[in-house]
Each structure stands twice: as C-alpha cells, then as structure tokens.
Amino acid sequence: MPESEAATPTPAQPAPARPPGRLPTRIELFLGFATIAACGFGGVLAWARRVIVQQRAWLSAEEFNEQLALCQVLPGGNIVNFSIMFGYRAGGALGSLAALLGLIGPPTLLMMVAGMLYARFGALPELRGVFAGLAAAAAGLLVATVAQMFATTVKRRLRPAHAMMAVTFVCAGILRLPLLWVVALLMPISIALAWWERR
Amino acid sequence: MSGQSNTLLVLLANFAACSLIAVGGANSAVPEMHRQVVEVHQWIGDRTFSELFAIAQAAPGPNVVFVVLLGHYVAGIPGALTAIFGMCAPSCTIAYGVARVIDRFKDARWRTVIQAGLVPVTIGLMAASAFIVARAADRSAVTFLITAATFALVYWTRVTPLVALGLAAALGLTGVV
What are the pLDDT digits (tens) for A45-70? Predict the structure, then answer.
C-alpha cells in the first residue's frame, strides 16, 4: 500500500519531525530490515546505521541516534524496538509490522533450520568438539562485549553506578534470583541514583 | 497433547516475562532464560544451553532470535514460534504505544536520566549472562583458553568475532577441544 506517506490525515499518524529523505514504503521497510538482519553478524546495530542512515538516507545520523536512545530505554531488543518505532513513523501500524517481520522473520526461519540440524546432528561425536569450541568462543565474545561496555563507564567516575552493577551481577549471576524481582527492585534505585547524580 | 500445550503456555509466559525485563537489549534476559529452561523446568542441559547460545551468536540476525533455538529445542516448531512471539509481543506493544504518543514527550531530559540509570543494571545483567554462558561452556583447559583468546581478540583488536568463532569451530573439528 504505497499511500503510506501520502496526505492521508488519519489521527493515528504522528506529525513527523521532517525526515531528511523520503520515508520508505512498507515493502521497502520489510526489505530494508531484512537486509539489516541478514548482514548483521554478531550484532545488527552497525548494519542498521549503515542501511538506514548511509545507504538509504531514511534518517539523519542525529535522528538515528535519538531514536535508538529511546529504544534502549524501552524493554526488549533495541533493534526490534527500533523497527517498531521507525516502521510506525514511516507507515503506521502496518509499517511497524512490515519492519518487524523483515527483521525477525528470516532469522527466525534460519534458527528453526539450525535447531533442526542441531537436534539431528548435534550429538554426533565428530561434531561435539565443534559445538564445544563454538560455545567457548561465544562466551569469550560476550565477556569482551561486557568488558567494553564496562570500560566506557570507568572514565567518568560513577561510584554508585559501579555498586549497582556489582549488586545486579550477584543477584542475577550468582544468587540466580528471578530477574523480574531483580529488575523491579534495582531499576528504580539505579534511576534514582542517576537522577541524584545529575541534579 | 495437553502436556504439549501446557509446555507452550509455560514457554509463552516465560518469554513474555523475559521480554519485559530485557533492559538495554535481549542478552540481558539470558540469566532468566537459563534459570527457567535449565534450572526450573530442566528442559535443556547447561552445556546444550551454551551451545545453542553460540549458534545464535554465529548466525546473522538480532539477538532475540536466540529464543527460537530454545523454543525449538523444548517443543519443536510450535515451541520456536511461541518463544519468538512471547519474546517480542510485550516489548513491541510497549514500543508501539510509545511511538504513537512520542511527540508529546519532546523533552529528552527524563530519557537521559532513565538511560543513565539503565546502564549499570544492563552491564550487571550482561556480566551475569557472560558468567553463566562461560561457566557452561568452559569445561576443560582448552575451552577456557578458547574463551580467553576470543576475549583478547575481540577486546583488543578490530577483527570480526566471526574469525574467532570460525577458528574455534575448526579447532573442534580437529578433535583438540
């Protein structure tokens, strides 16, 4: 339905803060987010920026950062939230759906095939070592990601924030408390601390 | 049959909860996923969990699709679809609601405060995820060395992590691991 950005003044449509380029149609949304998913090995954010800002100029770099920051505040996958919010802005509810399906549809199919292969061949003695090696490398990758995130916080000396990190780690990683309780309890404290530090 | 639909309902509820507590990204919910499928329901072994996580990391796509593998392992294709639906529906509904009203919140100060507050919790949860996955994956000196080498490669160089994953898989094929 290409009338998405035509002058149909439905009340659901927000007044968008003028996009730098032309906003995509729903088919373009689907294909764009499918491209982001297909190229995004080990994290799709870099590819989201490349496709949306550089290749197709759907958003300026500032708008991209602003929208992404908002998505990081919301629960759930950042890029998933981004697809919903950007899709809505470009094409309403169906735009959200098109972007979301483009982003998670093909990878979901791929993962189902991978799951079937793993169930069928994962226990083969010849492949045990492959999966053990992959798992060890994936663990190292995750540790490095956390270390990089941690390193960026150390430059600005944020003492209470580091205490929050330690408490969260112990609750979730060592004590294995239900995460719903951990987040419900620690998030408000952490936000209050952030507010207090910024007064 | 009723056992299967019960399993799907539990999967749905678990991943819907994970969707809402995944602060700062999907990997923040890995400790809760592990707690549910490995410890509470014992559907998946510790080692299998870490291997499925590795498959998801090695494949393209957003991090949330890890739950497809978990759901598939527990209950086949219905489980896979239930898991991804549960993981996306609540958070997407919230994102959609925010998208509809967002121009009423032009002032971004509240957002920077919430964001600053989110960072420590996210890092703590990601650290817990890394700890859980590493403890499950590192069962020998060789696997521990692979984890350490991957960490070094990703942290101190700009080489794509796919190189480390590929080398580790190749090493596994030779029988060293």
Answer: 878 988 999 899 999 888 888 888 88
Q: Which residues of B touch A178 (CB under 8 A)?
A: 32, 35
Max distance between CA atoms of chain A, in angstroms, equals 62
- Of the candidates B170, B152, B36, B11, the residue with the CA atom closest to the CA atom of residue B89: B11
B177 in helix, strand or coil?
coil
pTM score of the predicted model: 0.86
Is residue A165 within 8 A of residue B127, CB to CB? The reply is yes
**A18: pLDDT strictly greater than 80:** no
Model pLDDT for residues B122-169, shown as the tens digit of each residue: 999 999 999 999 999 998 999 999 999 999 998 999 888 889 999 999
Q: Do B128 and A172 touch (CB under 8 A)?
A: yes
Q: Does B163 touch chain A if contact means CB atoms closer than 8 Å?
A: no
Question: Which among A111, A135, A173 has the least Cβ separation from residue B137?
Answer: A135
Alpha carbon distance A75, B28 (integer Å): 10
For residue range A157-188, list pLDDT tens digits in order: 667 889 999 999 999 999 999 988 899 999 99
Question: Which DSSP string do the residues of chain A spell out, in sequence order?
Answer: -GGGGSS---TTS------SSPPP-HHHHHHHHHHHHHH-BT-SHHHHHIIIIIIS-SS-HHHHHHHHHHHHHSSS-HHHHHHHHHHHHHHHHHHHHHHHHHHHHHHHHHHHHHHHHHHHHTT-HHHHHHHHHHHHHHHHHHHHHHHHHHHHHHSS--HHHHHHHHHHHIIIIIS---HHHHHHHHHHHHHHHHHHHH-
